[in-house]
Design a protein that fits this description.
- This protein is mainly alpha-helical and 224 residues long.
- The protein has eight helices and four strands.
- The two termini are 21 Å apart.
Length: 224
């Protein structure tokens, strides 16, 4: 995953410096409109409430204190950022990193503790939860504040296409042994129709931070 991310970031930076005309596009899908902070943050807070609420049975479980703090920090910082309060967002993020320096052993420990919780509730917030998102949002907020001090450059747009497989059928291995021998049970998977609700809002919300990050790492030269 780190290798893929490195390649993707390098490719985006290279595109920002390439002589492509402003009208250039990648893929042919429609634009992904953004949503208000209240809509996005509200839906995310509702989604994580089961995981970060009062302690429950082991089958439901709760995230570790560190991951709970990471989730709370991300929601608070994202809300400030999406309302244009970049200084406030960065302050919240820096306070978190002072208490929990990036790369610390505590993240590895909480990651191991929280994998079972994530599986039990079917909520994927990253591994460790919100760690990568917090790093990305920190860079985005820092760039937004810096961008206010310099003259803006022309921005070129990249169109991102999300391909959704509506139906699949095949063998699903349950163990590494079955994976090696191409064994397992026959399964059929159908895409949940709710993913199309509100003009695919869930997809656009999940890509919001990525879109912001692309702008940050290219110093505003590219927008998705």
């Amino acid at each position: 995953m780190r290798s893929f991310t490195t390649v993707a970031v390098c490719a985006l930076r290279a595109m920002a410096q390439s002589p492509l005309p402003p009208a250039s596009r990648i893929a042919v899908n429609g634009p992904m409109a953004d949503h208000s902070a209240a809509t996005s943050t509200g839906s995310q807070e509702h989604a994580v409430s089961r995981a970060t609420g009062p302690p429950g049975p082991p089958a439901i479980g709760n995230f570790s204190p560190l991951s709970g703090a990471a989730i709370d920090t991300f929601l608070a910082a994202q809300k400030a950022y999406r309302h244009g309060d970049y200084a406030g967002a960065l302050r919240v993020l820096k306070e978190f990193w002072i208490r929990h320096p990036p790369g610390g052993a505590e993240f590895e420990k909480s990651s191991a503790e929280d994998r079972g919780v994530a599986r039990s509730i079917g909520l994927n917030l990253g591994d460790p939860p919100c760690y990568s998102a917090l790093l990305m949002l920190t860079e985005c907020a820092g760039w937004r504040l810096q961008a206010r001090k310099v003259a803006p450059e022309a921005t070129r747009h990249v169109r991102l296409t999300v391909i959704l497989v509506g139906h699949s059928r095949g063998i699903e291995p349950a163990t590494s042994g079955e994976l090696q021998t191409h064994a397992g049970k026959q399964v059929v998977h159908n895409l949940d129709s709710r993913i199309a609700a509100h003009r695919h809002r869930i997809i656009r919300e999940s890509l919001w931070l990525f879109n912001q990050y692309v702008s940050a790492i290219t110093a505003g030269k590219l927008a998705v």
